[in-house]
Design goal:
Strand 11 (285-289) and strand 12 (294-296) form a beta hairpin. The chain has 14 helices and 14 strands. It has a domain at 94-162 and 173-318: Arc Repressor Mutant, subunit A. It has helices at 8-14, 23-31, 34-44, 50-57, 61-73, 94-97, 100-113, 176-179, 186-194, 197-207, 213-220, 224-236, 258-262, 264-277, and strands at 17-20, 77-80, 89-92, 122-126, 131-133, 135-139, 151-155, 161-164, 240-244, 252-256, 285-289, 294-296, 298-302, 314-318. It is an alpha+beta fold. The radius of gyration is 21 Å and the shape is globular. The strands form six sheets. The chain has a three-stranded antiparallel beta sheet with strand order 5-4-14, with no helix packed on it. It has a three-stranded antiparallel beta sheet with strand order 7-11-12, with no helix packed on it. A two-stranded antiparallel ribbon has the order 1-8.
Amino acid sequence: MCASEPSALEAQKSVPLQERHCSVRDTVEIVLDSWSFLIIREAFFGVRRFDLFQERLGIPRQTLSNRLAALLDNNIFVTGRHSRESGNQYFLTERGKDLFPTMLSLMEFGDKWLTGDEPPPLQLIHTGCGKKCHPETVCSECTKPVSARDVHFRDGPGAGFSHVERRSKTRRSSDPDLLQRIRPCSVARSLAIIGDRWSFLVLREAWFGVRRYDEMREKLGIASNVLADRLARLVEARVLKKETYGNFGNRFEYRFTEMGHDLYKPMIVMMAWGDHWLRDDQAPLRLRHRLCGQDFVPKVVCSHCRQPLLANQTDYILNYTLPTP
């Protein structure tokens, strides 16, 4: 080989990575960072002031300042004052408030699969009907619960591929220990399953029907050791199961468990948020519910009255004692 001829590895690195348009990934970029998630979560618990965020979370001042600035840039928060006497405060925008169904769908998954023998950390009360309830992710057209097996997808108006920068091989987005800082939290436990952007992308490709290691590595442009690590974590978390195929017993496929199928629901709720707020409703994917035969968007509703759960119509009872700062 001539000295000027690039190696196969160099040639592979020089090829721009193509990635399908994906509203879930766009949403994950905002929500999955541990500190950003905790700040958004505390905002839904009513925290508004910088000093209270810092006191409640024990977050370094500069880190809090940086995350709040990013959430302002992403139009999740807006600043304002209740009165002349009050200091500057951070309020959820309509875009930020609309993350509430994402939080509830992650809570639905976590309450079902990740509480062990303990009761769920929160008992929701829907003030719209006055009943204790739990969140349910349903079809917007027939209001029946959504199952991954009952959803068909096809390209939407925003479908396509674009070049993306190759990602760090080791960067992790969420710290599982940090995610449950201060409060036990089903949402945090669910985000810890997704783990990081690579874990999310592995799951996304699995929902597109990619089951084999080599095909997944090719589609994602992911280093072999990183892919092996993420697959092992997802198997350990009981989201994927490893099965042999072929006649030799040394080839494997990765398929969803029942628990993994349920993780589909918060994923499509995140997708719906990203379609609306980040892509001007130009959805890369259209979803059709086989049970009613209609295109739909996922909705999170009260298990009692079947009406959408909104942040300003939801109260809660803590099933734990909040530590004194």
